Amino acid sequence: MVQQKIVIKVEMHCDKCRSKAMKIAAVAHGVNSVKIEGEDKDKVVVTGDGIDAACLTRSLRKKVGHAILVSVEVLKHKDPEDKPVTIQWPSGYCCQYQYPQLYLCKPVSDPEPPPCSIM
């Protein structure tokens, strides 16, 4: 099991915004803990495994305010000699949601053809 620590900077101006951000992060798939950090209390720190960082950032951006994915740190608990690996995202990183393509198809043949009568 690989634990992740994700830091997302979100524009939060009041306690209501911070509470909303924590609720959104807490219900995300794979999240074990959520806390607010930073000098201005503008960083959401999420810990868990199997978290989709881009999806969580997109949700916070959509429902709270401008959000930037700061870092994703992989914490390995199996071997104590391993050091955490930190991935720094560029400041202009943007994830665009890809909508699934839908295709409408018509059946080529009728599954229940009318009875054939030959006389």
Automatic annotation (TrEMBL):
<dbReference type="GO" id="GO:0016020">
    <property type="term" value="C:membrane"/>
</dbReference>
<dbReference type="InterPro" id="IPR006121">
    <property type="entry name" value="HMA_dom"/>
</dbReference>
<protein>
    <recommendedName>
        <fullName>HMA domain-containing protein</fullName>
    </recommendedName>
</protein>
<dbReference type="InterPro" id="IPR044296">
    <property type="entry name" value="HIPP46"/>
</dbReference>
<dbReference type="GO" id="GO:0046872">
    <property type="term" value="F:metal ion binding"/>
</dbReference>
<dbReference type="GO" id="GO:0009626">
    <property type="term" value="P:plant-type hypersensitive response"/>
</dbReference>
<dbReference type="InterPro" id="IPR036163">
    <property type="entry name" value="HMA_dom_sf"/>
</dbReference>
<feature type="domain" description="HMA">
    <location>
        <begin position="3"/>
        <end position="72"/>
    </location>
</feature>
